Automatic annotation (TrEMBL):
Pfam families: M20_dimer (PF07687), Peptidase_M20 (PF01546). Coiled coil: none annotated. InterPro entries: Bact_exopeptidase_dim_dom, Pept_M20_glutamate_carboxypep, Peptidase_M20, Peptidase_M20_dimer, Peptidase_M20A. This is M20 family peptidase. The active site is at D81, E142 (proton acceptor). Keywords: Hydrolase, Metal-binding. Residues 178-277 form the Peptidase M20 dimerisation domain. CDD domains: M20_CPDG2 (cd03885). GO terms for molecular function: hydrolase activity; metal ion binding. The lineage of its organism: Bacteria, Bacillati, Bacillota, Bacilli, Bacillales. Gene3D superfamilies: 3.30.70.360, Zn peptidases. It comes from Oceanobacillus halophilus.
Length: 376
C-alpha cells in the first residue's frame, strides 16, 4: 500500500496546492464553499455520497459516506476553514522549499484533507472494504468553536464506536485530551465629563474595568489547569474625557467540566457589583467548548493506533493540548476519540505555517491502516 502513496505523492501535492490557494477563512463563505466543492467532487469520483448541510452566513458543512455503508462505526472529522482573511493567498500563495510546503492553512488543516482522501483511495485501490466503515464530517467553522456545526457533529458521532480527528500533528504525537474553554465579554458603562473642567461629574468606565481585569486574572489557577486571560480591552472617547464606556474580552480555558461550572459562577460574581460607584456592568458569553478528558475507551483506541504505528516503524506517543478542536465535542459526548492524526507541521495561524511534506505519505498510510484495524 505504501507504493500507492509514493506513486501518488505528486497528485497529493497538486491537490493540496489547489486547496491552499483558496482563501477559506471562517467568514469567507464563498471560499469555504469553494474548498467544499473541490472535495465533494473528489469524493464523488470514488463513489462516495456527499450530503450538503447549507448555512446562510458560514460555509456549508459536508457529511460523506459510501452508499454501501450501512452503519459505519468510524466518524472522521476535518475542518475546511482557516483563520486567515480574504486576500491572504494573493500575498503568500502555496510555495514549496525542499521538504517543506508553506501557505495559509497548509497544515491547519488542508493537508489533512489530502491524507484522508488518499487513505480512503488506497483502501478502494487495494480492494479492502474498510472504506465502507467510515463517515466523514467536513465542517466550516471549527476555527470559531464549531458554533454552527456542533449539533451536526454530535448527532453523527453519538452512535459511533470511534472518532478520528484529523488535526495536524506538530511533532508526530497523537492528542488524547484537550482543554475546553469559552469567551466572555464585559461591557462597562460610566459617564463622560471634561477631564480638566469638571472631572468630578464623570464616572470612569476605564477605572472600573481596570479593577475588574485584576480580579479576573486572580481567578486563574494555572497549577490546576484553569486559565483566565483578558486578551482585549478598549474604552474611552478621547484623552481629555472621562471614559463613558469600556470593554474587555476574556478567554477561559478549563481541564474539566466542573472547572467550567465553577469559573462561570466566579466570573459572574466578580461583575455582580461595581468598584467605581455609578458604573454599570454587563457580562455575556459562556463555555462553548467542553473539556475533553482522557477515558479508558479512548486510551484503548490510542493503544491500537500506537500498535499500527509500530508496524510502520513509527514511535507514537500521545499528549494533552491546550487548544481546542472538534475532538472536544466527540470526546465530551462519550465517543472514544483520538486527535492529531493529520500530517506533521507547525506554526499554525502564522505566516510561517508549514507542512513537512514526507509526512503526507507516512500519515496517509498510518490512517489507512488504522481504518482497517478498527474495521475488523
Amino acid at each position: 500500500m505504501k507504493n500507492f502513496f509514493q506513486q501518488n505523492e505528486s497528485h497529493m501535492l497538486q491537490l493540496l496546492e489547489k486547496l491552499v490557494n483558496m482563501d477559506s477563512g471562517t467568514y469567507v463563505k464563498h471560499g469555504v464553499d469553494q474548498v467544499g466543492a473541490v472535495l465533494r467532487e473528489e469524493y464523488e469520483k470514488i463513489g462516495f455520497q456527499v450530503e450538503i448541510h447549507e448555512q446562510e452566513t458560514l460555509g456549508n458543512n459536508l457529511v460523506i459516506r459510501h452508499p454501501d455503508a450501512k452503519e459505519p462505526s468510524i466518524v472522521m472529522l476535518a475542518h475546511m476553514d482557516t483563520v486567515f482573511p480574504e486576500g491572504t493567498v494573493a500575498k503568500r500563495p502555496f510555495t514549496r522549499k525542499g521538504d517543506y510546503a508553506y501557505g495559509p492553512g497548509v497544515i491547519d488543516m488542508k493537508a489533512s484533507h489530502i491524507t484522508t482522501l488518499f487513505a480512503i483511495k488506497s483502501l478502494i485501490e487495494s480492494g479492502n472494504e474498510a472504506f465502507k466503515n467510515v463517515q466523514l464530517i467536513l465542517n466550516s467553522d471549527e476555527e470559531i468553536g464549531s458554533i454552527g456545526s456542533r449539533q451536526l457533529i454530535e448527532e453523527v458521532a453519538k452512535n459511533k464506536k470511534y472518532a478520528l480527528i484529523l488535526e495536524p500533528a506538530q511533532n508526530g504525537n497523537l492528542v488524547s485530551q484537550r482543554k475546553g474553554g469559552g469567551k466572555y465579554f464585559l461591557k462597562v458603562t460610566g459617564k463622560s465629563a471634561h477631564a480638566g473642567v469638571e472631572p468630578e461629574n464623570g464616572i470612569s468606565a476605564i477605572e472600573e474595568l481596570s479593577s475588574k481585569v485584576l480580579k479576573l486574572h486572580k481567578l486563574a489557577r494555572r497549577e490546576e489547569g484553569l486559565f483566565v486571560n483578558v486578551g482585549l480591552v478598549k474604552g474611552g472617547t478621547s484623552i481629555n474625557t472621562i471614559a463613558p464606556s469600556a470593554e474587555a474580552a476574556i478567554d477561559v480555558r478549563i481541564d474539566t467540566e466542573q472547572q467550567g461550572i465553577a469559573i462561570d459562577k466566579a466570573l459572574k460574581e466578580v461583575v455582580r457589583t461595581s468598584d467605581v460607584e455609578g458604573t454599570k456592568l454587563e457580562l455575556t458569553g459562556k463555555i462553548t467548548r467542553p473539556a475533553w478528558e482522557l477515558t479508558e475507551e479512548s486510551g484503548h483506541l490510542i493503544s491500537m493506533i500506537v500498535e499500527e504505528g509500530e508496524k510502520l516503524g513509527l514511535s507514537l506517543d500521545h499528549e494533552k493540548s491546550g487548544g481546542g478542536s472538534d475532538g472536544n465535542l466527540t470526546g465530551y459526548i462519550g465517543t472514544p476519540t483520538v486527535d492529531g492524526l493529520g500530517p506533521i507541521g507547525g506554526n499554525a495561524h502564522q505566516e510561517s505555517e508549514y507542512l513537512y511534506i514526507p509526512s503526507l505519505v507516512e500519515r496517509s498510510l498510518l490512517l489507512a491502516n488504522v481504518i482497517k484495524r478498527l474495521s475488523t
